[in-house]
Specification:
This protein is elongated. The protein is an alpha+beta fold and 408 residues long. It contains twelve helices and 20 strands. Helix 1 packs parallel to helix 12. The chain has two domains: 246 residues, FAD/NAD(P)-binding domain (3-Layer(bba) Sandwich), CATH 3.50.50; 151 residues, no CATH class.
């Protein structure tokens, strides 16, 4: 008689654990329980519908630095299944990945459906049973077996359980796992955008700057990279990374803080002042509005001029020291007040989860309950944006699958 593995969660980590366990050991019957009526929903929307599968980083030490929480944990797990293994795993199943200049990796089809189809085909090939609208509300251990009770009054008996249900926004939602003796690191949102209610810069929604520096006042939090101005405030990779590193610090400020933006990372106040002095001599009769420093988007350049009191017809010869100083400050130290956050729907990640001290990084098995495993975001591991959270999902799920397949 086959042993039974119940995987809680039909997302990336859940599917990857299920299909690999079923493939590695035909003597395991695998059931995926998904609480909603949608499978692989985060895979579908990730990367704007293209699915940012992993990141083109091939050094474990460097890769682990992209995780605000769980660095030491992933440094161990990546030795078993790393980015190179993810690329190979999908390629062996006919899915080729490509790296973009920022390191993010996508299927060459530029469609998340390619990844979904691959995982669904694997599930079908190895007889993985999928049950939708089936949320586990209680887990009991009885005679070395598990009893999983669902919201639709089902009771499943399992020899092995893998919890891969993603992160929960509230500690209270972990109660069914706390009953098994596990402690929870408080869940907090990560990868969110900054709200600037009624700030005039939001009129520039859709404008992006390829390279800017963003610093949170009164902290060590600083990031460099692309920024996107939205109708509610600031987004883009630099802001999302900042939110990940500040996931535990920013709630203390009630998500209200000042942000300093350098739109021209190649300049500081002193070097820009020297540039202006030079232009006064060489371009005295030219309009300032025609001298776009650093080739900023024209809408942003004109906005910063207007904010600094520089009229569209003003020439360098007529620029007063006072207005010059205001303009320089706005270019390299533009200050905005953030009041709140907005969930970045595609990339939403929860920091916090099952305490890593209670999980064996070599097997993904609980140190509290034999044959209970964890994979993905349910663990207190989270990465910055760029495919790092998916890599943790693939890695932890593969290790859990391998461990389970060897126990049978």
């Amino acid at each position: 008689m086959k042993k039974q593995l119940v995987v809680v969660g039909g997302g990336a980590a859940g599917f990857f654990c299920a299909v690999n366990a079923a493939r590695m050991n035909p003597d395991i019957h695998v059931i995926i329980l998904e609480k909603t009526n949608k499978l692989l929903s985060k895979v579908k929307v990730s990367g704007g519908g293209r699915c940012n599968v992993t990141h083109a980083l091939f050094d474990i030490s460097e890769m682990s630095k992209r995780y605000p929480r769980g660095q030491n944990f992933v440094k161990k797990t990546f030795h078993q299944f790393f980015t190179t293994d993810t690329i190979k795993w999908f390629e062996e199943r006919g899915v080729e990945l490509k790296a973009e200049k920022d390191g993010r990796m996508f299927p060459v089809t530029d469609s998340s459906q390619t990844i979904i189809d691959c995982l669904m085909n694997e599930a079908k090939s190895y007889g993985v049973e999928i049950r939708m609208n089936s949320e586990v509300k209680e887990l009991e251990v009885e005679n070395s077996k598990f009893k999983a009770k669902t919201t639709n009054s089902e009771v499943l008996t399992a020899d092995y359980i893998c919890i891969a249900c993603g992160g929960y926004p509230k500690t209270s939602m972990f109660q069914w796992l706390q009953k098994l003796g596990h402690s929870i690191c408080e869940p907090l949102p990560s990868l969110f955008t900054f709200n600037l209610p009624k700030h005039p810069i939001t009129q520039l929604m859709g404008v992006s700057v390829d390279k800017a520096r963003v610093k949170i006042e009164g902290s060590k939090l600083v990031e460099e990279g692309p920024i996107l101005i939205t109708h509610w405030g600031l987004s883009g990779p630099a802001v999302l990374r900042l939110s990940a590193w500040g996931a535990k610090e920013l709630p203390v400020k009630n998500y209200q803080f000042k942000v300093h933006i350098n739109w021209l990372v190649d300049y500081n106040e002193q070097t820009l002042k020297e540039q202006f002095q030079s232009l006064r001599t060489t371009n005295s009769s030219k309009k300032i509005s025609n001298q776009n420093f650093g080739f900023l988007p024209s809408r942003l350049w004109l906005f910063l001029l207007e904010q600094s009191g520089v009229g569209s017809e003003l020439r360098f010869a007529d620029l007063s020291s006072k207005i010059e100083n205001i303009l320089i400050r706005n270019l390299v130290d533009y200050i905005v007040e953030v009041k709140g956050k907005t969930t970045f729907k595609e990339e939403f990640v929860t920091a916090g989860g099952i305490s890593l001290s209670e999980v064996d990084a070599n097997t993904m098995m609980s140190k509290k309950n034999p044959n209970l495993f964890f994979a993905g975001e349910i663990l207190d591991v989270d990465g910055i944006t760029g495919g790092f959270n998916f890599q943790h999902a693939w890695t932890s799920a593969w290790i859990a699958a391998k461990s389970i397949s060897r126990l049978v």
